[in-house]
Records
---
Amino acid sequence: MRFPGECTMDASRPPEPSPWLPLGSRRRARDAKREAVLRTAVQLFLEQGYHHATLNEVAERLNITKPALYNYFRGKDEILFECWAMGQELVDGAIADINANAGTGLAKLRKLVRAYAEVMSTDFGASLVRFDVRDLSARNGEVVRAAKRSIDLTFRGYIAEGVADGSIKPCDAKLSAFAIAGSLNWIGHWYRPDGPLPPEAISEEFAIRLTEGLARRPQRKKGAPMM
């Protein structure tokens, strides 16, 4: 994959494809380059902090010139927002999948906990919780805040649904949602890819631990022997 403004040239390489590629191919190539910028940028932002990382460093890691970045993004804060958006898309996709299938409120809640935990173990997922919304433009900041409210309401909705269908004990859905989401968000701060547990094991453990206190146990039938 080549970027406009790439720093090195190699005469042994085959010639660049014609700029008159089909529109769909050009869009896919541009999207791939944008994603490469975002993946590199989010790694640097997480490693060094948003304010310490520079676009020069992003360009150096990609082996392109800094001006080439402006073919894809208007500035550093837009890159930050797009990193957040990539993580949000993962969460939105998980919620859409859950809502497309039947299940009790408890089953949906556990699926969301599992999916959210796995998202938090990715760089784009961590960007949902590691960066300050105040570094974004006012418009993008409001988009982020609205998305956070939507995720909170989804957690509350599954809990309330579980209370209604009997799979979850009566509880305060708002406080329960806060407790669950707070625990999950911290994964984005402490998770390390070289840690002892893979994301799948962490997500499964969280799905059990964060919901077992809410789950209503099946009532023992009258006269049934105690185990």
---
Amino acid sequence: MMSLRRPALFPAIAACFLLLAVQSHPPAQAQTPILGFTPSAAAHETDLENRFKAIPSPDEERRQHHIFTAEPHVAGSARNNELARYIADQWRNEGLEDVIIRRYDVYGSNPKSTFLEMTAPAHYRAILRELPIAGDPDSKKKSISSAWSGMSASGEVTAPLVYAHSGNPEDYDLLRKQGIDVKGKVVLVRYSNPYSYRGFKALTAEREGAAALLIYSDPAEDGFKKGKVVPNGPWGPEYHIQRGAITYDFMVPGDPLTPGWASVPGAKRVPVEQAVSIPKIMALPLSWHDAKPLLAHMDGPVAPTDWQGQDWQGGLPIKYHLGGNRVRVHVKIEMDNSTQPYYVVEGRIRGSQWPDEWIVLGNHRDAWVFGGVDPSSGTASLMELTRALGKLARAGTRPRRTLVFCSWDGEEVGLTGSTEWGEQFANELRNKAVAYINVDEATSGPNFHGQAVASLVPMLIEASHSLKDPSGKTLYEAWKESSVRERREAKQPEEVTDSNLADTRIGSGSDHTVFLNFVGLPVLGLGFEGPYGVYHSAYDDFFWMNHFGDPGYRYHTLTSQLWGVLALRLANADLLPFDFASYAGNIRRFVSELEKSNKGVWGQPPSAVQLGEARQLPPLDLKPVLDAIDDFEAAGKRLNESATRALASGRIDPVLARTINHGAMEVERNWLNPDGIPGRPWFKHILYGARFTYAHLELPGLTEAVEKQDWPTAKQQAEILRHALISNTRLINDMDSSLEVAAPKEK
């Protein structure tokens, strides 16, 4: 684990630097400067990127996408394992090095049988299947599974049915107000109103004492109320079923039996009954076709149209009731939840100058069915990325740092493959890795969404200027225009600027989680989005992508290009392009938003704020934290200025550069708290976390303590944050001093 104490600094660096620094590139002039590069290096980088961007092709993206969507390939399946071997063979043929398939024996999940019927007041047996779509040959395949939820418990129950809207805690508050107790009953909930991860719905139902959970896709969220449905449009048809796992990976991701360490041979395994991420409730997803007869027969109070701003009435042409008595259902689920092998494919292009500094790039391979968008669009883009970079490497053009490519397994079950790999190599990653770049879904439409820790946002913005969007604009222009439009539609008044264009509020739900929250790596996430109503269903396939998502595979290609440009800039930069002043501004916003959302608490005398139990609320003074942020920002600005001058001189001593870069890599590690978030020790990052819903949670330990009004813990977490800021400020100041001492003197 990384300590929050002051890291080893640079007491003798300046003395060892040569005043006559070495230029590692022949003289050349760049058309445009690039963050982290000397002018000559930027010129070479621009030429390299142009050659790289010319290689990925829409035809190859489409060909690879067709391979990966040819058959269902859920985690642990024979087809998914076959695809792992295919990727490894392709990477070897493309010239990647050290290609290996790593096996992790983990607690996995597969269905044996699922059954649902309404027994009263009428009989209806749910089909739990998706019917074929005209024109879509894949939708006819017999290999498509019936409805099932990963990590569901096995069991059988016949009980009354209750409608609980989105299945969040506040929804059960309404049921209680209506005199409805769900204990021992089956609960029917919707997927997205508002969005919450299905695992949180399961945990909430389990805590409420429900016997089983049914989760259905209401047309108000992703069906005909949104627009035309498949095969005439991108939205979900009557029979679409959103599969998915209900694993409690917001507590601890990865193999439930090896929480915090890798599931390698000989690893200690906790008993199943002690595994905190394994649900104890039965769960089953439904299409609205199967949910409609249940809802239509329900009695009880009419579901409200406005409860805490939420409309419990849905998109079906019926009156929704809360139920609880009239409708009875019979649920029977038999699962094969047992230890099984998952496979991670790993390959590299070794760096020519700093092979022990890594840029890690990854996408998960496993899908709930065909995975047209999730994840096979990302997998196709990964394959074109490696083909292009492999071609350059075979021609003698290698990155200066090592590129590590990974195809993850079991992401859909519990972020499993990436977590096990990250846990296995955590110490090596903390010593060597610069950043992790994740692509889960490459595209479901034309609107780019870029996510990054704030220190890498300027690099992401800069790179977006260098790529062409299929619209003919630069990617930056298209990104900004779509962001303005989306925020206007969402009635968000904030003006779109470079400082808020990228998403710096990073939750969970994909493979970046282990790298950011456990290892302490800076992360970026890339993807294009659009209308997409077939998520995790059999209709998310090759047909859907070719008709609605990305018919010309142009956004697949752009994803490969952007992914590669970012990787090459991180791999080739003279000084790693981290902007810690940008990071400081982001942290200040996090603190300000925490204060604003808890207005009236900070700095007031104890008598001014009362709890319901008449206990007095102590003040929480965040001024020391804000002062530490100011110091961190000032240090970041000075380092930016020193780095800009050093790079502009064209002379960066390689020993100095290596030392500065390793210091910059250490900054993200210093945001780790070895003890983790209170109650969730696996999650160690003090700036970034996730709520149980998967939603982003900034300053997680501090925020959760404030929301619980646990002031001793809040003060402790604020002090941990302050000490981390002080530690990183000292580190950055030492880097800046080293650059200043070694800077060429003007004659």
---
Amino acid sequence: MKWAIQPGDSPLFGPERGCEHFEQRVLRFDGASDEHVHEADDEVLYVLEGSGRATIGGEEVELSPGTAAFVAQGSSWRVDDADGLEVLSVLVRDPLSSNGATHAVVAVDAVEAGAATAGRAFRLLATPEVGCRSVTQFVGYIPVVRAPDHFHKYDEVVYVLEGDGKLHIDGESVPLQPGTCVHLPAGLVHCLENVGPGEMRVLGVFRPAGSPAEAYYPDGTRAAY
């Protein structure tokens, strides 16, 4: 299935995989890094593993799993110290103007959860409210259930953080596990199923920005939650 990439496969979703709006990368650090700056792209970051310190847009930041950041095009960030640090970077092509915002840092545990379909929940990270006008970055929490097939009106890339499941698209199914990447173009009918035994957590980035809870059934009616 072209919509999923399993752990160990590369590259992740980006132009080479037909994903024009985004480029996913897993960055690894065991010490200080060079300066990172993208003149044409916004970037959203999420710490997957390890710990460290970084300077993001001139702000010193402690890094641990669940730390998220938005870095506007032309702004810089660097890792100052790291111990087994893994960061998921998503570059956002042709971003909207940030209206002067250079960066934002959000800790997932500091964010209140919202509700979505089929008992799912989410926490919003990089959003227009913190200056990230092009995309919404969020962590989704999926209980042990198969939700009804649905689609979104936004283009989304997903990274599985925890749990095991299946991705169902057009009669085909592939396994989901930590490290699996998924691309869901706008209008693609799909279902992410958690097969258990525990909760599944996923990291999503989508554009245009909005609510992860906005979904539609295959007949076009809006999904209830």
